[in-house]
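Quick question: what would this complex look like in 3D?
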Amino acid sequence: MPKLNLQAIEQSNRTGYPSPFAEAMTRRWTRRLAPTAGLTDFGASHVLLPPGGISSQRHWHAEEDELVILLAGEAVLVEEGRETVLRAGDIAAFPKGVPNGPHLVNRSDADCVFVAVGRPAAGHCYYPDIDLHIHGASGRFTRKDGTPY
Amino acid sequence: MPKLNLQAIEQSNRTGYPSPFAEAMTRRWTRRLAPTAGLTDFGASHVLLPPGGISSQRHWHAEEDELVILLAGEAVLVEEGRETVLRAGDIAAFPKGVPNGPHLVNRSDADCVFVAVGRPAAGHCYYPDIDLHIHGASGRFTRKDGTPY
């Protein structure tokens, strides 16, 4: 059935980040929609951020477009040198290759819900605030100097 | 700026459908997000359906996944032999190659707003209710027997 039963999709706060960057992610609750829905052209995540939650460590992708659609609550979109409040119905787009790492932070006292759309992982990913990098060829997290965690 | 200024993006009720199938589309108001946002991996449309509007003629794609995210109001998702009401926060997914042509119909007395995500046009598109087809190789609308409009 095309309408997704969101409640039936596992909601997880797992993260692939190595320690110590993983610790900040315990308040990001993600449902991965594409595997359940049978989509392969792109991925989509339904994400709940309780107060204090962040969507990711601030990052930008060399080869992946991303689109975020706010469904409920509000989040602060933090970019390089700028902050913007996003509310239900707002949409933000992050074209590949723009070196302006964003993330969303829930500084409100209510839950925030959004959907994030992107293509399958590809290419390098840059984290401006922390010593972390996704190496394009391997898809693995490394330090900025290329050494593994 | 990643947050999209939706009001600044042209809202159009144009359709590529030939007559007489175009006439039903005058109450679909679409903003195409990807060209403004600089996205190329996938497309996304912000769509407003006033009461009586429909999202498209009922159709399914051979080679394009689609994802719909309801932002406001409600719409009836009409499929082969089934109807489902979608409300704000609901998500529906349409994996390629599933021969179950859906569309959304606003039977309420308030506006409905949704975002639709898909990859660039590819492959055949089938319209179960009407004598219309998108030919995969040409990307053009034809009758079901292949003759042009």
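Answer marked as accepted. The first strand of chain B starts at residue 29 and ends at 32.
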